[in-house]
Write a structure and sequence with these properties.
There is one protein chain. 54% of the residues lie in helices and 0% in strands. The chain contains three helices and no strands.
Length: 98
């Protein structure tokens, strides 16, 4: 059998998008269980993965803002915003001393 001979992986963003679609539809959309309803356990696993990706993104954005500005208040605010870009220049006149 050729199953499991090759590692099948996705970027975390694509896997998260797929999991979100499956949770909305409440059915498997890939693999041997395609079309069968998700159990509560499987739905929970997908929810946990989505939460994990959100945590990783938030931490990345926090560190990015801290490295650039050194302003903890701005970094916390920035890390919780979705779809925003890091501001250019200083925020409150506070810039990390090099």
């Amino acid at each position: 059998m050729d199953y499991n001979k090759e590692r099948r992986w996705f970027s975390p963003q694509k896997r998260a998008a797929s999991y979100a679609e499956e949770r909305k539809a409440k059915v498997h959309q890939h693999g041997s269980k395609e079309g069968k309803p998700l159990t509560d356990y499987e739905s929970g696993l997908r929810s946990g993965y989505l939460q994990c990706q959100s945590d990783h993104a938030g931490l990345f954005r926090y560190k990015l803002a801290m490295d650039k500005f050194g302003d903890k208040d701005y970094a916390v605010k920035f890390s919780r915003e979705k779809g925003t870009k890091l501001k250019e220049g200083k925020t409150d006149g506070k810039k990390k001393a090099n």
